Amino acid sequence: MSLREQIVTLREEIQSSLNGIASADALEAFRLKHLVRKGTLQGLVEQLRTVPADEKPLVGKELNALKALAEGEYERLQKSFETKAAEKMIDVTLPGRDSEIGHVHLITQTLEELKRIFAALGFTVEEGPEIEDDYHNFEALNFAPDHPARDMQDTFHIDDPAGKYILRTHTSPVQIRVMERQKPPIRAIVPGRVYRNEAISARSHSIFHMMEGLVVDEGVTFAELQGTLLSFAKQFYGEKSAVRFRPSYFPFTEPSAEMDVTCYLCDGKGCRVCKGTGWLEILGCGMVHPNVLRNVNIDPEKYTGYAFGIGIERTAMLRSGIDDVRLFYENDLRVMKQF
Ligand code: 2U9
User: Fold this and answer.
1) Residue 212 CA: which ligand 1 atom is closest?
2) What are the distances in angstroms from CA 154 to CA 60, 167, 312?
3) Domain boundary pick from 25, 60, 89
4) Are residues 330 and 217 part of one domain?
């Protein structure tokens, strides 16, 4: 084979093996075969002596071009393997990356704390369905048939054939179910999610959480309600807290009241949060209406009861300084991480 033919053959071999080089080891094998002093290229260079003088410049040029190609490609591949190796190396001097650990949502934290306080006061925790019927959500609770809360506008209705089901607007139907299956003494709290068809704003949302309480037994009085809720307020808002009761109205309680607690931010002196009054409205309460007891076959002549309801979002907002309920449901980590 003439030297020119050998150059062509070697070029093909070099080119095809360059294409297949995928590791630093393969590249080293390539170098040892072609680029060292006893390698294929140098072997051809040595044969140049045997080429007739008039062909030498051309053949020499071709051989040089092949050498330049092989060496150039070798260097390019070597560099790329070096960068890949460097990228794989771990810099042990860099600070470690913390893995992010999630935590319980502020609404859940608030519910957990309320449950803990009332469990210590002897309350059991009860749960019930979020899809309710009109009877348990309204009728059994002494809502008049034409009460505005029963309006299609205020309540979410389920698209069922009988048109009977709704999303519960409060957790009170659960207490009805508890009394239907259990006779007094009853001492229960009911935390849960409720739904109202309201325009969503900073103050109200179509989904929110509440926790209600119910105590039914012989001889239960408004004084017992006051003592229990004062104990709760001191544990939740601080030992120094005082409470006051203002008359109110709910269909399911009579008499009904709103309970205020002294503003824990200004100790009752008046500030931005309590709007200068020194008091924060924190819950509604009252003595269970005799009609409600009758509806679940509990004799109101023998038994009395009290009940209360706490809005969780409102409670969490008061304590955390969050001023927009929508933030609870947007799950923006910049907000979530603060609580
Ligand atoms: C039964 C009998 C009585 C539950 C009560 C309130 C007062 C009350 C609101 C607080 C803020 C709901 O989240 S909120 O909008 N609740 O003011 N709730 S008494 O009374 C009951 C419940 C069930 C069988």
Assistant:
1) 4
2) 95, 11, 20
3) 89
4) yes
